[in-house]
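Q: Joint fold for the lines below.
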Amino acid sequence: MAQSIVKEFTKGLWAEVPPFRLVLGLCPVLAVTKSVENGIGMGIATTFVLVCSNFLVSLLRDIIPAKVRIACFIVIIATFVTVVELMMQAYTYPLFLKLGIFIPLIVVNCIVLGRAEAFASKNPPHMAIADGLGMGIGFTLSLGALGAVRECLGDGTILGNPVFGPDFQPFTFMVEAPGAFVCLGLLLCLMNLIGKK
Amino acid sequence: MHKQNKFTVSHAPFWHDGSSIKCMNLNIMAAALPAVLFGIFQFGMPALGVICLSISTAMAWEALFNFISKRPITLNDYNAGVIGMLLGMMFPATIPWWAVIIGTFVAVVVGQQVFGGIGGNPFSPAVIGATILMVSWHTFFDFDATLLSYDFNFTALAPLAALKHQGVSATGLFNLSDLVIGKEVGAIGAVSGIGIILGGIYLILRGFIRWEISVSYIAGILVTAGLFNMVDPGKYAEPMFHLFTGYTLLGAFFLATDSSSSPVHTIPMFIYGAMGGLMTILIRNIGAYPDGTFFAILLINLINPLIDNIRPKALGKGVNNA
Amino acid sequence: MREMISMVVVLTVLSAFSGGMLAAVKTGTNDKIENQVLKFQKAPAIKLILSDVSNDPLQDRFKIMDQEEEVTFFVGKYDGTPKAITFETKGKGFGGDIGLMVGVNIESDEIIGVAVTTHSETPGLGSRAKDDPKFVSQFAGKTMDKNLGIKKSGGEIDAMSGATITSVGVCLAAQKAQELYTRLKPEIEKQTAQMAN
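A: Joint structure:
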């Protein structure tokens, strides 16, 4: 039993890491990873929503009628997203300003609905939490990694600290939208290269 | 590994003119030489340095990528050389060396090799490289600032930037014959209108590029700029000014005609070229950038697969009751 | 029939639960959010404009309804008498709305200064409107009848090179501020007169 919880948890970290392996939830991946801070902030917000909604969906999985399950999932997810949004506004306002519209957009993030539908509605609560936590952390790390590459090249900083010294001329392309696509493609390519061996 | 089928042909465009890729690329380089030589003459040794560095690093990146991806070394088709040369022509002479190296990396590896090398690239690789550099380091392509150390015996202002910032009255500072010869501030290989036209006509006569694209591109520029000029001559510059400034001619003869990212049928070629000219002028007159050639060419590269579907129907095809 | 009822009941209960939860979170965080908005968005800009006032403009504020929109005015007192007000307007920039805090001297109707509050302009180009005071300082000392457009379109402001659209956006916000101020002048005077005591 304990072993399978570990398995559900770890699959989100590498084997099924959402943006790179499942290629899901690309909207926030491309939009908010201008810096490490934004990426990780977004990842944590999504993780919170993912764990809470997975838990609740899994608890109610026998009560929710099959025909209206998507509507129920969305209500649950939207509730938690709004909670996160209000909380971020109240306590981490600068980060909220940077993420802006992408916080409410977690509602339509495929990962959250996807895990609710594919996993949480068929498994007991403790497994669903492990799954949500694993997926969330995998998502957070991916966003952090992408954010690190883009911030490092595009702004010459990591978490706001300059890494290259004053003579570095930032590769601004990387923090623009097309840079996100190119960067994601190259990281995917790297993941596949490593995974093949 | 999937099984290699000997008889599978790819979807890339095919021209049959009896010559090899190597021959074509050598000819393109030769055709670009007049413009390059003029640039070197005008901007001195730094220009020669940029061109040499650009060609050599482009070839180095291709060799390196071939080596890493365990594919045969394709250097001897001179394709990387052409990309490097075109890229070098789009730079100002004072661009730092590391920017050239990044530019050739983006052009050769991201622009072409990751799509499977020659024939697989959806965009003109040289334009990709130059655009990404321009978006990232705006100041290197601000010719007024980068070429400040030069002492020219003509108006030392980048024509298109002057038009953007000072309005149409600035065009009076430039003599059209100066612009045609290349006595203007700009990129190494883009200043000499005559040189590019000569090279372009040579390529067209030899059949390495299609006259339809170049001619319709230039027609697109002239017609669109003419219309703008006709509506409000006080706000928009004359068509000839647009034709001989910035990257217009380089785009018409060398960039838009890239073999794998341009259409192969006649009508699509006309649409492709005209769209390019139209977009260039729209970006120059309405957009935020002084020159729109790069973005225009990337845009028409994007629509290329779509418009290339406009072609004559094969006889009897699609007829139900034949 | 039973299925129908269960569907309706489950969805209703879920929605009611989520509504209640959100209402609770909302009331809990409301004050906090308003303070955060003031603290992070408005305060730095106001401080920049009203640098030597004797009161706290964040405390001395009032609201006026203007064409279905509520505008908040922050009052700056010099030696106890209210002499300046600041308020925020918005202009369209390259990457979305640019918020501009405009300070006006209510005795001479001159602009004391302007400062950008929020923006999503390109780092290094449009963002100079906020980081580099050279551009926004041009607005200081202009009266309400001046044309605050960029020079190219007949105004008096030099656009930032390479960031024409951002410059136009800021100018637009400033022009809106002129209109708004002229329109609401009587109301503003009434309100500030009350503050004097």
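Q: Anything notable?
A: The first strand of chain A starts at residue 157 and ends at 158. Residues 2-147 of chain A form one domain.
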